[in-house]
Design goal:
The chain has 307 residues and is α/β, with parallel strands linked by helices. It is 33% helix and 21% strand. The strands form 3 sheets. Strands 1-2-5-8-11-14-17 form a 7-stranded mixed sheet, with no helix packed on it. The protein has a 6-stranded mixed sheet with strand order 3-6-9-12-15-16, with no helix packed on it. The two termini are 38 Å apart. Keywords: Aspartyl esterase, Cell wall, Hydrolase, Secreted.
Length: 307
């Protein structure tokens, strides 16, 4: 697992470096008139770098020997540096509030901006087009791709549908997934920005899998669905990992999608069922269930981190 741990760490550190570069660029173009947005971005991206470094540390948790020790030492030092950067941003925010309160007033605009669809049930950063799709029934939506196991769509599997997406697609790109249990691991890669899954209800359209830590998979490799690209939306979908409690970490859904929305979705598993890894995410009318303890948590609404 040490080799796979190194591969996972390489991917996450690459993403963390991208966030650090974005943070530097955000500081370079800082405008006091829109200072609150810049600060929100900086905090989101710097917090994400800390998260990704922690993922790297976890990936080497069971690695013995000098290499594993050295890697953990380096990651600890880099984590401290990221914490210092966050502290500097907080200090910067306080200074701005004293000199120009209107430019850096702390706020969390979770809901609002829904006049175009007659609803304020989603964050202000959700676009009018996205709002309309979220408020519409599947019969009223013209999807870009339809997935159906009975052959009534363009594809029978979700992965085949994703593979067919070209380079110049419009956003949001809507994939309507008809009722059925889809036994496949689905990964929305970094470049697939603005993908939307619409199902026939979380009990009817379900994506299932059973990868787990006990069988030799790193936790980051167990999700039935993993979303790495920003702007992802899921509506009326079910996600599950059926490995059971003996599998230890069994993630049903992992997401590091910035500005993502999850509406009327269900997440079923046993441990680490839903892993909202990083960035701004909004959950409404969602359920996380853990059958092994006969417990569930309803999310209505919930935001992991949002401006």
């Amino acid at each position: 697992m040490a080799k796979r741990g190194l591969e996972i760490c390489d991917m996450k550190i690459h993403t963390a470096m991208n966030d650090l570069n974005r943070s530097v660029a955000e500081i370079d173009k800082f405008d006091p008139a829109t200072g609150d947005k810049s600060i929100d971005n900086l905090k989101t991206w710097l917090e994400a770098t800390l998260t990704f470094q922690e993922v790297c540390v976890d990936a080497f948790a069971n690695t013995t020997g000098p290499d594993g020790h050295k890697m953990r030492e380096i990651l600890t030092l880099s984590g401290m540096a990221a914490c210092n950067c966050l502290a500097m941003v907080d200090g910067w925010t306080r200074i701005m509030q004293k000199t120009n309160p209107s430019a850096a007033a702390p706020h969390r605009r979770l809901l609002g901006g829904g006049a175009s669809t007659g609803t304020n049930d989603f964050p202000g950063w959700v676009t009018p087009t996205q709002r309309k799709l979220l408020a519409s029934a599947p019969a009223d939506i013209k999807p870009d791709i339809t997935v159906a196991q009975d052959g009534s769509g363009q594809f029978k599997t979700i992965n085949d549908a994703i593979k067919s997406i070209g380079a110049n697609y419009k956003v949001p790109f809507v994939i309507y997934i008809k009722a059925g249990v889809y036994n496949e691991q689905v990964i929305i890669r970094n470049e697939l920005v603005g993908i939307m899954f619409i199902g026939d209800g979380p009990n009817n359209t379900r994506i299932t899998g059973n990868k787990n830590y006990r069988d030799g998979f790193q936790t980051q490799d167990t999700p039935t669905v993993a979303v790495l690209a920003p702007g992802f939306i899921a509506k009326d979908m079910g996600f599950e990992n059926t490995a059971g409690p003996e599998g230890f970490q069994v993630v049903a859904f992992l997401t590091q999608s910035d500005y993502s929305v999850y509406y009327n979705c269900q997440f079923h598993g046993y441990q680490d069922t839903l892993c909202p890894l990083a960035y701004r995410q909004f959950y409404r009318d969602c359920v996380i269930s853990v059958p092994s303890t006969l417990s569930s948590v309803s999310l209505a609404p919930f935001s992991r981190t949002a401006p």
